[in-house]
Amino acid sequence: MRWLAALVALGACDRALGLGPTQLADGMPIAFTCPPIGATPQYYPTLLQVIDQPCNSYSFSTAGLAMAYCTDGVDQHVSTGPRDQPLVAASGFDDPVDEPVEAVIGGDGTAIITYLDTNTRGFGYRTYTQVGGAWQAGSEVLPETGSPNQPYVIAGMTLAHHVIYANPNDATLHELADDGAGTWTEPRPPIAAPDLGMSEIFIVAITSDGLRLLLGGYPVDQNVDTMFYTDRPSTDVAFRPAEVIDGVPFGDAFLSDDCARVYVTGLDRVFYLQQI
Q1: How many other C-beta atoms can be found within 10 angstroms of the C-beta atom of residue 100?
Q2: What is residue 196's three-state secondary structure?
């Protein structure tokens, strides 16, 4: 829900963040790898345009199926398509009561849709899988978030069917595990934002192995929009304290599994930053 912040950040990138001009991307990069666990990846400050389309919450699966919440100039839709290509409205999300507001796809192609229940005005969180070209609803990942609480921020599902999400109402980071039958449990206690070196958490994005995490929020004792990175050696342990990731504009972001790119949305486009 923070994509407008990305638009502002990108629109002022030269002035406020010291970024170079945005450029059109010219093809996929050569092979990259993530740095060792415990080291934060670094990125060139130039934003490269990859899709000229008004979308937010851009993400993609390991098979290269991308998903975002896009507008066609009139309405907003959950949209899909090949990675780094224009997206089209997907079928299966036209519920008369539950209105999608955010969409994220996990490593195995399972989507999690945050929706507004137009009857209760609360927010729900539901899995979807693609069957025969259409998306079908699965299990409810979390209980509905009632008004006036802010909706949870979902990072997506890992290949092991774990879900990372942030609760902005109490500034905590949570992890859920699926038992395979649609029941979700927390394998460990949530992490309070101060234990990550943050005071608020508004943005989360997870790699498909569940080891690397992008976060957006405030540093401790500073109300300054900031992007962070953290990781862990295995999914059996909690994430280490986060570090500021320089040059990445604040807003909806997605980290590719090889750390080669950080994707960001704004200015009615999808951009990426390239790993150094």
Answers
A1: 19
A2: helix
Tell me the two tokens of residue 275: 């790993």
Q: What angle do CA 104, 119, 58 make, to 5 degrees?
A: 15
Q: 170 vs 40, 185, 223, 263, CA distance in Å?
A: 26, 19, 16, 27
269 DSSP β-pair partners: 266
Which residues have C-beta within 8 Å of that of residue 216, sequence separation ≥ 6? Answer: 2, 201, 202, 203, 204, 225, 226, 227, 228, 250, 251, 253
Q: What is the pLDDT along the chain (276 residues), one digit of tens a residue?
A: 443 343 334 444 433 333 444 555 555 546 899 999 999 999 999 999 999 999 999 999 999 999 999 998 889 999 999 999 999 999 999 889 999 999 999 999 999 999 999 999 999 999 999 998 899 999 999 999 987 789 999 998 999 999 999 999 999 999 999 988 888 999 999 999 999 999 999 999 999 999 999 999 999 989 999 999 999 999 999 999 999 999 999 999 999 999 999 999 999 999 999 999
**What does the alpha-carbon distance between residue 106 and residue 125 come to, in Å, rounded to a whole number?**
14
Burial of 96 (0-12, 13-18, 19+ CB in 10 A): exposed
Residues near 124 by beta carbon (within 8 Å), at least 6 away in sequence: 98, 114, 115, 117, 140, 142, 144, 145
User: CA 86, CA 80: separation in Å to the nearest integer?
Assistant: 8
- Total number of residues shown for the chain: 276
For the domain bounded by 3-274, which CATH number is listed? Answer: 2.115.10
Domain segments of the chain as ranges: 3-274
